[in-house]
Amino acid sequence: MTDTEIREAIDAGDIELAPIGETCIQPASYDLRLGDKAIVTKTQDIEELRERLKDNQGAAEINVSKEGSISVPAGAFALVVTRERIRLSAQYAGHLGLRSYFARKGLLLLAGLQVDPGFEGHLVLGLANLSPRTVHLSYEDKIATLELHRLNQAASDVYAGVYAGQQTTPTIPQADADYLRTIETLSVSDLTNALLRLSDNVATLSRDVRVIWIPVGIAIFAAVVLRLIF
Predict the structure, then answer these.
(1) What count of other Cβ atoms lies within 10 Å of the Cβ of residue 32?
(2) What is the predicted pLDDT for the residue at 44?
(3) 69-87: string of b/e by CB count within 10 Å (b at 16+)?
């Protein structure tokens, strides 16, 4: 659909994008903005990770509207909700894509790419940072594009998936939050750093062993030789 068709469908009540951003309507898509809630599954410190696992803690939900932004470290995974609440009638479907600005920064969109006819609510998007640097996202940043398609005829069965009716408010579904708690872990870069620290500690221990035990070994050997002689 073109920008004119999108506006006409909104005016007719066939599509709802609220609160709508006039600058978000593009020639053939709509730019979805970063919404109120997010979860970033990342622990930057191995001691912090140990404490979180011991206490069975997961990643805390972030109030993005209050904090103003979120940071997605290298190797991290994040769940975010869209600012817009979306409603599609039975004759419309959507297709999601990450905005190229963030794709060039190394982000990857992992959410389902289709918005089915009859869907209503805020979308939950999965983002993975594949770059070696932290990516910062500000509240209401335009993060994804939504292509809208008018079907030749209305779908006979509208969306009735697991999230039907659950996303009327901009929150992370509890099932998703619980699952992320079970996979809270170190990123690849943090794991590499932890292994390097372990290697350094082993090397230091080896040096200490040589410093302590070589003289001890020499002394024991000398004592045995003297005992045999005398």
Answers:
(1) 28
(2) 47
(3) ebebbbbbbbbbbbbbbbb
Query: Which residues, at least 6 apart from 135, have a Cβ–Cβ distance to it below 8 Å?
Result: 71, 72, 102, 105, 106, 107, 129
Q: Which token pair is 39?
A: 């979860």
- Whether residue 189 has pLDDT greater than 60: no
Residue 133 shares a structural domain with residue 222 = no
The pTM (predicted TM-score) of the whole model is 0.72
**79, 86, 13, 82: which is closest to 42 by C-alpha?**
79
Verify that 191 and 225 share a domain, yes or no. Answer: yes
CATH code of the domain in which 175 resides: 2.70.40.10
Same domain, 223 and 164: no
**pLDDT, mean of residues 74-103:** 94
Integer Rg of the chain from CA? 27
SS3 113: coil
What does the block give as tokens for 217? 């070994």
